[in-house]
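Hi there,

I know you've been waiting on this one. I reran it after we fixed the sequence typo, so this is the corrected version. Both the input and the resulting structure follow.
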Amino acid sequence: MRPLIAGNWKMHGTLAEATALARGVAAGPAAGADLLVCPPFPHLAAVSEALRGSHVALGAQDCHAAAKGAHTGDVSAPMLKDVGARFVILGHSERRADHGESDAVVKAKAEAALAEGLVPVVCVGESEAQRLAGEAEAVVAGQLAGSLPAGFAAAGGVVAYEPVWAIGTGRTPTEADIAAMHARIRAELERSFGEAGAALRILYGGSVKPGNAQAILALPHVDGALVGGASLKAEDFLGIAGAV
């Protein structure tokens, strides 16, 4: 399957910086991977315009489970689609921790995204305490079971494995640990969705950078990367994409 390199810009950048970054990514070569950038909500429309006609897809960092309503500060899936988004990140560990999002909440959001034709990128991952306790695979399997809706595979949904303790820390699991977790995720996807689960992309995230991307992306069942800090520089992001 064709790899996906996704950039999660998180809460970074002014409008001018976001537009310049989008143009820098779009000006890069069309590597052997699909490219996706996910800017903060206020910059979506401008980045959408900057990417128009390019090979880079637009995504958002979250959506509400409802299509509209009295939900101050939230953004709906129809709004995201209206500004040109094709993907939406859901269940990132920072959302699960900072906003108390449960698997059920993530699943409801994924259902809302699917209803609008958006591709959900559902994040799963264990804490350091859970890994040290030998619970990492069980935790991730539970998150998958609770977070992925029935239509996920048919819509070509994406799973992103991000060990919580590796996000933004510069630390990464061993290659063996990454391969083992991705194999478990693949098995869970096939168990839930049959043959369709074998075709879904599983991304690795957590301190991915140009220097380690080639080794990580070469591992079995690693079908791309969800990139945080390194996605804030076009050169670094494109360097990761070029490692495919």
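Quick highlight: The mean pLDDT is 96.

Best,
R. S.
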